Amino acid sequence: MFGYDAARWHAVLNDFPAALLVVAVVFDFAAATTKRESLMWAAIWTLWAGVIGGWLAVVAGKLASGSIEHGEAIHEIMEKHENMALITMSLFTVVLGWRLIRRFQMPAQELALTRMLSVIGIAGLVWTGILGGRLVFEHAAGIPSRTLQAEIENREEGHHHEAGEEHERAADSLSDTTKRTAPHTHPPGTPPHSH
Q1: Domain residue spans of the chain
Q2: Cβ within 8 Å of residue 121, ≥6 positions away
Q3: pLDDT tens-digit profile of 37-64?
């Protein structure tokens, strides 16, 4: 759809729900601290949006896992990523469902338990994101082999800069080298010493 395959849709859909779920937990803790009803409602609506968006990202990820080229290393990480996403979204869904069923009339112990589950959910979001990052940045998951091969060849060829254009890395390493080899001076009267 719109020229996007499942892997690209997963990439489009996965960041926003994660941010919403984190913000929902922040709003919930702010509501508990300030006793403001408006923050409680902000927390529940943000949680709703995060849970719906999160499940859309999970579905797109599941579709992507069956459509991208991959070997054993990607497959192993992809399984962990998928399992963590399912656990994480299940936790947030339980929190949302629990709050809706109890109609926000929960005793302090239940509120504390749902908040603890939400914090565990945030840890799950972070770990899911780390695993997703490994898939993309360490294993180039989602990039077709033909495209990856062309990029490898392109990188091996190097590149050239126009006159006056400076390569950032070369400039950085040059300045680092200059800093290390440049002699330094001491103020008058400094006792003799060695470096």
Answers
A1: 6-146
A2: 21, 25, 88, 91, 92, 95
A3: 899 899 999 999 999 999 999 998 888 8
